[in-house]
Amino acid sequence: MSENAEQDKIDPEILEQAQELARGAEILPHGTNALANRLQSAKKDKRPLRVKFGVDPTSSDLHLGHTVVLRKLQQFQEYGHRVVIIIGGFTARIGDPTGRDITRPPLSDEDVQINAKTYLDQIGCVLDLEKTEITNNADWLKPMDLNNIIKLTSSVTVNQLLAKEAFGNRLDKQLPISLHELLYPLLQGYDSVAVRADIEFGGTDQRFNNLQGREVQLFYNMEPQLVLLMPLIEGTDGERKMSKTYGNHIALKDSPSDMFGKCMRIPDNLIIKYFNLTTTLSGKEVEAIEKELAQGVNPKDIKLKLAEQIVSQYHGKVKAELELQNWNKIHSQRILPSIEDMQTYILPHPHPQLFRLLVETGLASSSSEAKRLIAEGAVRFNNKTIDDPSGGYLQLVHGNQPSGELGILQIGRRKFVRIVSELALEERI
Predict the structure, then answer these.
(1) Which residues share a beta bridge with 173?
(2) CA-to-CA distance for 402 and 413, rounded, in angstroms?
(3) Could you give the 3-state DSSP secondary structure of residue 228?
(4) pLDDT tens, position by position, 263-280
C-alpha cells in the first residue's frame, strides 16, 4: 500500500498530531505512519500510549543535550499520553557499553540513589512529574533468578549481540568485552516488557538497544514497541556531541548569565537545530524563524532570541529578559556593569598565579579551563589581554593605587570581577 493510501485511512487530526510528534525524530519501523496508526489504535481503545524512556543515573548533572529527548516526551505528555521514566537502578551498575572502548566502572547503590534524585529534580524542569510514572528497573531485575535469566538470554544469539557497534569496534581493536556487558541490551529490552511500553525513546546512539526491546517483547508474546530516536546535538564548539567531558555543554544548573552566554557561542549553522530540539516552540514557529534567516536577518539577532528562549525555559521570563538587556548593554553599547553590580575579590599577598586566580574568582571552573581561556586570549585585565598563565596581577599594575583598587578582571565580554589589593588595604589601615 502506498504512503498516501495509508494516510487516507488515518483520522486527519491524528495524522497531524503524529507529524508534529515525529518532527526531528526517526521512528522505527515504518516512520510517521506507524506512529499515526499506534495513536489511532490508542484513541479507539480509549487509553494513552505508554511511552518509555530509561536513564542510567551515572552522573549528577544534566545538560541541554539530555533535554532533546525530554522535550519530545513533553510533547507526548501534552497530548495526554503516559510518560514512563525508568531509573536504571540495576542497569546503571553494569553501565551501557554504547560508545565505550572500555568497561564502565561499577556504581554503588548509594551513588545511583544520589544521582537519581538530582536527575529527577532536573527532569522536573521539563516534564510534569505529577503526570509521569517513575519506576526503577532494580524492582524487577534484581529479584530475577537464574531460570528467568536463562530464559531472557535465550531470546537472542551471541552473533546478534556482537553486531552491536560498540562490541564490533572492540573486537576489531582486540579490546576485551566483559560477559555482563553483553547482557545490558537484554536487560534494557526486558524493561520494555516490565512496563508494557508502546514506544521507547532514545538518542540515535541507542538504536541497537531500543530495537532489542522489540525483540524481547516479541519473545514474551507482546506487541513490539515503536522506537523513536532523537538526534544527538552538537555542543557549543559545533563539532562534538554535547558533553561535560568536552566542556562544550550548557548545563541545566548553569546560572542565567552563563546559560545565555553559552547559547550565544553556538555556531550559526546550528541555530535552527537548537530551536527544533531544545525549545518548546512549535514546528510552524521554527519555520518562521528559519524563513527570517533565509531572508537575511542577522544570525546574531536570531541567536539572541534562542538564548532568551532557552534561559526563559529554565529560569523564567523575567531573568531571561534581564540577561538580554545585560547582553545588549555590554556587547552592543559597550557598557561595563557598574562597580556595585560586580563581584569584588581581595587579592591576597603573596598573590596567586593568574590561572589559579581565575578559578578562585569563579571566572573559570578549573585550572585547565583557565589555562585554555588565557591561551585563547579571552582574559583581560584593565582592558589589556593577558597571555601568561603563571603571571600575577601586581606586576601588571604600575604601583598600587592608594585606594587598593587594582582594576577589572574580565573573561570575554560577559564575566567581570573587581580586583582589590589586600596589601594596599592593610597599609591604609
Answers:
(1) none
(2) 28
(3) strand
(4) 998 999 999 999 999 999
CA nearest neighbour of 186 among 287, 251, 97, 297: 97
For 220-298, where are the alpha helices, taking DSSP H only?
256-263, 271-278, 283-294
Task: Locate 290 and state its grid cell.
Answer: 528559519
User: Higher model confidence: residue 351 or residue 140?
Assistant: 140
Cα-flanking dihedrals φ and ψ of residue 210, to 5°? -70, -40
CA triplet 257, 260, 261: central angle to 5 degrees? 85
58 vs 51: CA distance, rounded Å: 22
Neighbour tally for 410: CB within 10 Å: 21
Bridge partners for 52 per DSSP: 84, 200
Cα dist from 354 to 39, 393, 398, 419, whole Å: 59, 7, 17, 12
Are 389 and 371 a contacting pair, CB within 8 Å?
yes
Question: What pLDDT sits at residue 182?
Answer: 87
Q: Enter the DSSP assignment of 30.
A: T
Query: What is the SS3 string spanning 370-424?
Result: HHHHHHCCCEEECCEECCCCCCCCHHHCCCCCCCCEEEEEEECCCEEEEEEEHHH
Please, what's the largest Cα pairwise distance for the chain? 89
Separation CA 386–CA 377 (nearest Å): 7
Give the ranges where 124-173 is alpha helix by DSSP (H): 138-141, 146-153, 158-162, 165-172
